[in-house]
Design a protein that fits this description.
mainly alpha
Length: 125
């Protein structure tokens, strides 16, 4: 497994496990975030599982444009998290805000790791 495959696999694993946990523990997450409706955690969980599947597709295919799209989606996740933390459009618990911030840091590290691995790889197309 080359460096870009390792970076993508870590992202897929983190995203897939996170998605599954959000679906399984949607009620607990709603309580942790002080949110009444837990359906948002189902939706995010399903989206993360789908994202993990697309990462695994690119993990096998190893096309530069596909990997760049994954990196862009990670960066968009971080930007979205920052918007939630800065503007606080929803009432979320302090613990929930910490969780959002920590996950955003992890996702940012994965985007940087994938970018670095892609830059060092010989993948051109």
């Amino acid at each position: 497994m080359n460096q870009i495959q390792k970076a993508l696999f870590i992202n897929a694993l983190f995203s897939g496990v996170s998605g599954i946990l959000l679906i399984i523990f949607h009620s607990e997450m709603a309580s942790l975030f002080f949110v009444e409706n837990s359906s948002v955690f189902w939706i995010i969980g399903i989206a993360l599982i789908y994202f993990a599947a697309t990462i695994l597709f690119e993990w096998k295919r190893q096309k530069r444009i596909g990997i760049l799209v994954i990196i862009a989606q990670d960066i968009l996740w971080v930007i979205g998290s920052l918007i939630l933390l800065i503007f606080q459009p929803f009432t979320i618990s302090t613990t929930g805000n910490w969780v959002i911030g920590i996950i955003a840091c992890i996702v940012l590290l994965m985007a940087v790791n994938q970018s670095y691995a892609l830059k060092r790889s010989k993948i051109n197309a």
